[in-house]
Amino acid sequence: MAKFKKIETPIKDLFIIEPTIFEDNRGFFMESWNEKEFNEIGLKIKFVQDNHSRSKKGVLRGLHFQEPYPQGKLVRVIRGAIFDVAVDIREDSPTFKKWFGIVLDEHNRRMLYIPEGFLHGFLTLSEWADVLYKTTEYYYKEYDRGIIWNDPDLKIEWPFEEYGIDKVILSEKDSQLPTFKQWLKMKKERRKL
Ligand SMILES: Cc1cn([C@H]2C[C@H](O)[C@@H](COP(=O)(O)OP(=O)(O)O[C@H]3O[C@@H](C)C(=O)[C@@H](O)[C@H]3O)O2)c(=O)[nH]c1=O
Q: In chain numbering, where does the site feature Participates in a stacking interaction with the thymidine ring of dTDP-4-oxo-6-deoxyglucose fall (predicted)?
């Protein structure tokens, strides 16, 4: 029996992954990554880095990407809950500019597999959330990029009201990110040089 269930999303190549949970009187056990099993469900991935971040309620990290050296990510939550968002920014994709959001939490133990060429960000819904994610490329500070979380074209519906969040907490860097339009314009201008 397959250890992981791959669930389609409305976005091409973006998948929800459900691990098999083995519960008994001690607690539970699950495999959170298995290269062979992922290959068997059609995900041929090579990860090179594991990250762990902790955020308090209302913290929004994002929307991030790396260019060049894009990173595919396998995201999960081991404490608390987040609203995890991926945006397809592959210009040749049929789902270009579409976003998808999902609650990942310590109870549903769901993971989101975000391929390369996406923006990624999340909003912390619980008092604290510990997020673990694997990446297919190393982090390079000089290639770290982002788009503002409330971009008027992407129109992401962050569930602030539903979770009683009245103030979004951002890093200095994330509060100054460009809009998607500004980013596309900058990219075009750079191509001309
Ligand atoms: C992401 C990252 C950061 N850092 C350092 C840089 C900085 O001093 C400190 C905090 O970095 P940031 O503020 O960029 O961290 P954060 O805002 O959590 O950035 C992350 O957000 C989520 C949504 C993602 O998808 C990730 O890929 C990454 O972009 O950690 C690393 O050393 N390695 C890394 O892989």
A: 139
